[in-house]
Amino acid sequence: SSSVRRAQIAPEPVHALSASPRMSEVSQEWTWSGRASTSNPPRLSEALRRASVRQRLDEAHQAGRLFRRRVHLPIVALGLLLMLSGVPLALGLSFISELTSLPPDIVSSIAACFLIVPGLILLLLSLLPADTRSVYFSGLVAMAAYFTFAGLHALRAWQEARLLGSVSGLTCLSPSLGAVICWFSRCIVSYRCIISATCAGAGVRLLCVWLFGKPHARSRINFLWKNTGQSLGAVVTTNVCFLVVAAASETIERAFAAESPARAIWVTWIVCDVWYGVVLLLLYKPSFRTTVQSYLTRRSEVMMTAASVASLLEGRDVSAVLTMAEQLFRSITMDKLSLDALSSSRPDASLYALSEPCAFGDVHVFVSHSWSDDPLLKWEALQQWRNEFKARHQDKEPRLFLDRACINHAHLSDSLACLPVFLAGCNKLLVLRGPSFLQRLWCITECYVFLEMGGTAEQIELINLTRQEGGEQQGDAADDAALELALRSFDARNATCTLEEDCSRLLSVIESAFGGVGRFNEQLRAVLLQTWASSQKRSQAGTPAARSGRNQNLEATAET
Q: Would you report the helix, strand and coil content of the chain in percent, each value rounded to 5?
């Protein structure tokens, strides 16, 4: 047997996950509270409900465009401007050197250090997993920069090698540093070859991933950061070794003592090496990327949380998604369900045939649950909820949206793109929170999208599932302690999906909306803790007689 504990989410939702005020007003008109009432829930017409859903999706698309125009595009433009300014400076060495009277090595070092590398970092910081096209284009830009510098250093190595032995004795002529010890001139050639190979290797790795790797934007962004960090780390290591050899050979000391033009080159190289080291530390600092992106999304939090809903549509037209959702939207009544419906997540054509098409607003609850939780616990919880519903609504059978019964697995991709519409078409969200609920990414996403699609906190009902051990019911205090611990330790990064592709897709939506999983954890954890606090207050307010009555109802349901 089992114990089922129920709670209603607190009416004060966290701002980042709550619906916009205007949409909340609309949703309050066509949704019902689910409290003790003997009348049918009031609803607007199907046309008005459809208009409300369309308005929310249109707002999501508009929010995405607004964010790109106000926040995303300026950063991308600045990053591209720096990179496109640096590449001509690095390539047009002779022309720029004549204009500025600076040695070619100083010009190329300044271009790489203060234009191309910062531009590339800005470009990476502007990328969000939902921006598939921007990610692809940024990879091509980074690839062009890598191959440009690989060719540049290969050219400089060839120029150095060609002049080896042009001065008799122990001294050789270097195009960069003038007269130097011959063995150090060979070190310069080796140094430039290593840098060229490093840049070429980074470009080749990027090309292979873009051609043969995973097409997911999130995976590509992570690889861009990793590839940039590895290549810059190799460059910094090579530069430090080169400076150590130069110092040991007293080349740097002689250049400063003679006040030769090479002194400016050495100063530029040393400054650039220090700057590269700082950038490398930032790249390998885990919080750098998430901190910057969280700051950017925080500036436009309302826009981004709404735009994340649009990203679930996979770039499809709003009208097409609405039309498709109307054709695929189905429900099933509780009297047609059995325990077997909750026992497996595998598609069941016979179960799907029991569901029937319905209009937006005709479905009482969207059932959010984890397939990893005990099916018997979920079945008993649904039966108890069903009995309470029928008692409030003149013995009327409730209509549910249950994924296994209502999603056509022959058109699974279309159904998943319609998820925001399906959630908005249901009057309430019924959460069956079992032990694994917070570890399933789809369950978390359903709660988040329901709020973003105009649902209010009062429309979410939570049923906490706990099992009796040894025939005796666990104490309320033990249940509360276990639930509080689970909520406080909630982390979306530990959540999983059956399919890796779904996991990557959903994490992309979360990271795009919040600039990282960390901020999403904070916001959703706050909402869940409000649920727990509300449950505590209702449990303390309930009388022993009432609690005893609920337990008797549960035992009768279990026997049935």
A: 70, 10, 20
